[in-house]
Design a protein that fits this description.
Elements: H1 4-16, E1 24-27, H2 38-44, E2 50-53, E3 56-58, E4 62-63, E5 67-71, E6 78-87, E7 91-95, E8 98-105, E9 109-113, E10 116-117, E11 132-137, E12 141-145, E13 148-150, E14 172-177, E15 180-184, E16 187-189, E17 206-216, E18 219-221, E19 227-230, E20 233-236, E21 243-253, E22 264-265, E23 279-281, E24 286-290, E25 297-299, E26 304-306, E27 314-319, E28 326-332, E29 338-344, E30 347-350, E31 355-356, E32 359-361, E33 365-371, E34 379-384, E35 396-404, E36 415-424
Length: 426
Amino acid sequence: MLDVMRLLSLALLASLTGSIRADVLTVDDDGGADYTDLQAAIDGAHAGDVLHVADGEYGAFTLDKRLSILGRSGVNDVHVAGISRVTGVVSARLAGLTLDALEIEQTSRAVVQDCEVGYVGPAFPPGPSVKAALVIRDCGDVLIADSTLQGLRGCCGDSPWPTGIAFGAGSAGLRVESSDVSVVDCDVNGGPGYTGCDWNTGGTGIEVRGGVTTVAGSTVQGGPGGTFECLSTGSGDPGGDAVWVLDGIAVLRGGGTADQADYASGGLAGLGAEAGLGVRADGSSLVVHSGTSVSSLGAFGAAQITSPAKVEPFLELSGDLASHGIFEVHAHAPVGEPLFLFFAFGLAPSTVGGVDGTVWLSGSTVFAPLTGQGQASPVVLPLALPPTLTAFVGLELGMQLVAPATPGSLDPGAAFLSNAAPLLAR
């Protein structure tokens, strides 16, 4: 039987040899910590530090230095109100947070894990424009894992939506602009359209406007359209598309299992209108979907939607990630496919010649050989982080599958990389 715990111990030992631990600063709005306010903690921290946040209510922050903001292990109620921003940094990591809205821009590398993003009230408070629950703009590589992204509900009167967003329409769950983004094991939903005397189209689940967005093992759904109710008349507006690619490339990977039947589905329509598409591609964009179930497809202009001849492997985590309990690594791959599962305590995206995909693992790595059991029957590896790991808040564990680019071949110069699956110790 594969001794994953021993592999992890070896990787941890290698990663800690000669390393310098970052300072961990505590934040608690009730007091008794280094800081009571998140923005004050960011301003007082040094690059590379970790902010360890207790449950509570915090104001929006602007992160403009290389830091990690982590909710404490087992805590799921670190609420950050308003629109928070990560801007112009080499690296940022967020985990265990609930944020009303988040924008990440001009950042080389970011990891968002086990977070809930999206204001769920009746309408977002008046203020700056909000295009999506999470906006990623002009970034290098961003990895979003084990998170829920909920588009904001459309509103009227003092609507904050900017030019280009229909009045009263729901916002997108995720909007990507000229960035490379990986979405792993997430639920992404467009916001519902407003019901009243305004336009009220449902929001898009994931909107891609440049770069490459890869979605693996996730569920994406467009927001439901609202109903126009004014002067005693009633009519509906369309539901939002699950995935809308206006420019760039979107790659969708899924296992095709029963619980992923709605992997990408358009939002429900308002009265008398049409439901959104599962995938819509416009302009000269490209969508590649592999092993997924999509409710409906639509390619317009010079756009293309295609499926590879070989179903592509992907990796996901399942279980109690927040409190470092027992969880599982799920490796989805075709039956009989030779695989290597790599572990490393370090994440830093890079590219390697002859390898299809982004290498996320950095530092010392260990690996285990596996054999695919089918996309719907993943190889399941139970895993518990070593108890001593809780002493290393901010340490990051990354996992990634390597498979042959050509079925049955083990040519190291022609390999396919799955998505990375991260876990931030907190």
